[in-house]
Amino acid sequence: MSDPILETRGLNKSFGPVHVLHDVDFAVYPGEVTALVGDNGAGKSTLVKCIAGINGIDSGEIRFNGEPVTIADPRAATDLGIEFVYQDLALADNLDITQNMFLGRETTRGRMFLSDGEMERQARDTLASLSVRTVSSVRQKVANLSGGQRQTVAIAKAVLWNSKIVFLDEPTAALGVAQTRQVLDLVRRLADQGLGVVLISHNMNDVMEVADRVAALYLGRIAAEVHTQDTSTTQIVELITAGRSGDIGLPAVVASQA
């Protein structure tokens, strides 16, 4: 097993008197899809925001490539190579695919002119590297794209910048069957290219299909971390709803260390 590219160790976070995260140990491995699951209020969003530099941590540490790091703001996360694709996708409908992929990071020629042709080439190359065949032109306006195509553009935007880890928040929510298939295939290809992928999802079918391992949060604690091939949908649902699984045969917090 390779070493994790990203870890949190003993991470704690409170908001006033509410202790949201309790000694969370979480790891992301290169070339793997790690599903982060948990019920509403389990702490998933808070954990992700701590890693993204949106929320500061109270105690514990974040390690990247084995070294402790301080992620004080989202720019620091980006500089490390950690990208996030949130549910709202953060795409501008009035811009085309190329303009969206480079939004806020436009390539310039000198100090004044945007290198439009170079950005278009890089956008095409990135989509091609991900084997995306559902987008006919990188000059299509995002407003004219389907839900699956929009999700594809958001993911391609995240990996354009030589990212090492991509967090995907409910990437198949509100998608049809065919579009879900396209997005899940893309998620798998990201891992196959060596990226660490974190899939945040309530869809257990998606989790079981594409994830290599599952980390289940329960009331702000990691209930268990299990390999997908060694568990079942029923066991994962038990971890999400009760913090333990009788089928696994160990208290959940112990199962994560077994």
UniProtKB/TrEMBL annotation:
Q: Which domain of life is it from?
A: Bacteria
Q: Which SUPFAM superfamilies match?
A: P-loop containing nucleoside triphosphate hydrolases (SSF52540)
Q: Does the keyword Nucleotide-binding apply?
A: yes
Keywords (A to Z) from UniProt: ATP-binding, Nucleotide-binding
Please verify whether the record's keywords include S-adenosyl-L-methionine.
Answer: no
Q: Which SMART domains does the annotation name?
A: AAA (SM00382)
Q: Which InterPro entries match?
A: AAA+_ATPase, ABC_carbohydrate_import_ATPase, ABC_transporter-like_ATP-bd, P-loop_NTPase
Q: Which residues form the ABC transporter domain?
A: 6-244
Q: Which GO terms describe its molecular function?
A: ATP binding; ATP hydrolysis activity
What PANTHER family does this protein map onto? CARBOHYDRATE TRANSPORT ATP-BINDING PROTEIN MG119-RELATED (PTHR43790), SUGAR ABC TRANSPORTER ATP-BINDING PROTEIN (PTHR43790:SF8)
Q: What is this protein called?
A: ABC transporter ATP-binding protein
